[in-house]
Amino acid sequence: MFTKILVGYDGSKGGRAALERAAVMAREYNAQITALWVRQPLPRHADLPGEPEGEAEAADEYFEERKREVEAVAKRHGITIACECRAGHAAKVIVRFADEGGYDLIVIGHSDHPELWGRLLGDTADRISDHAHCSVLIVKSHEGQPRRPN
Questions:
Q1: CATH number of the domain encompassing residue 135
Q2: The pTM is what?
Q3: Domain residues for 12?
Q4: Based on the structure, what is the number of domains in the chain?
């Protein structure tokens, strides 16, 4: 069904749920899968000398930790997951990356923000689903919550 899956992964609870679901789908469909972490751009002007370099190093370390998490999921499912990092606005970067890479599915975690907060600011998953040129699966994490009967 799907041959190229892109999963937005940031290490959050929703991101972990999306990565797990995408890994299962990639294994079942024998699909290529890429995990993409999008970091916000660093400020152009810093107050202290060396501040942008320190933030860049911290971001690199954070990305390396996310890569290790992705590798653990891939190993557990017996698949290979490519891992990429880009800077920019998350929704724009994910949609552009999927479009340019010919992905036919984007898997993204639902944000854990309160409903009112999400309505006021908009949710990354909502923006991706509105602008993507391929199918989008928004995975909700239900850890610790009872499932509602159908």
A1: 3.40.50.620
A2: 0.82
A3: 4-43+57-139
A4: 1
